[in-house]
Amino acid sequence: MLTKSCEKGTDHLCSPDLRALYRNRYEFGGIDTLELLVHSPGGHAAVAYRMARFFKAHCNRLHVVVPLLAKSAATLLSLAGDRIYMGELADLGPIDVQITDELERGKRPFSPLDEFKSMEFLREYATEFLDYFAFALSERGMSVKQSLHEAIPAVSSMMQPLYSHIDPSKVGSYRRSLAEAEDYAKRLLKQNKNPYAEELVQQLVWKYPVHDFVIDYGEAKNIGLPVVKLEQAHEKILLEALMGMVTHGISYSGFVVAPPSAGKKGGKKQVGKGVPVEVKGKPEAA
Description:
Layout: E1 2-3, E2 12-13, H1 15-23, E3 31-37, E4 42-43, H2 45-57, E5 59-66, E6 69-70, H3 73-78, E7 83-86, E8 91-92, E9 99-101, E10 106-110, H4 113-139, H5 144-163, H6 168-191, H7 197-207, H8 217-222, E11 227-229, H9 232-247, E12 252-253
Parallel strand pairs: 2-4, 3-5, 5-7, 6-8, 7-11
Antiparallel strand pairs: 1-12, 9-10
């Protein structure tokens, strides 16, 4: 089970999570159904992919449980699930990677998709102006050929200063960054034999307008993700546990053994599989 508190500085999937996984890796083996509880606004795509591959290799079925939040790289991790259990307010998100450019943009992360959306807008803007000029000239009696002959240079002179700000080397670099998440997502979805893998990746990387776009249960189902509604009783318990961790600033990466079934030693009443135990105190640093 993996949970991450939503506190600044402690909330991302990163190298310490991999180290926590390595420390517990020998506990894995012969698992039928592994349930992975995820609460995170994102992190590093490579880390999410390595964790996803590890979990898939050590169980027959992987169920990802998202009571509230699994954005960006956490969404990428969720794509490994044979099923994704989502709460009523659960939120997945686009998987366009976030990068930084301290020289020109400062330390705040941004999506390389911004550059491509800008070029997309310029292309549409140029097309609209070309249509407008060509139509206006043809209305004045020019032929289509004459109208285009006059309109194209006019539109080119308008657009050239705008396009001159685009750096081809940066565009290439940004495209490679986006390709990372694309490739990871395709590999995970195809491993699950998802018939919509190509369309899903296109949607998750390129089609949403902003990185924080809300992908709730309904949207996730519409685009072809294997989502299931989380039972209300389980959702209530999980949300209470997560909110307690957030309130106390607890970030946790670890594993919880399923409670013993009735009839086993101790004769305790059976508890639903996957229900988390309470986390007390500050966990060991990852």
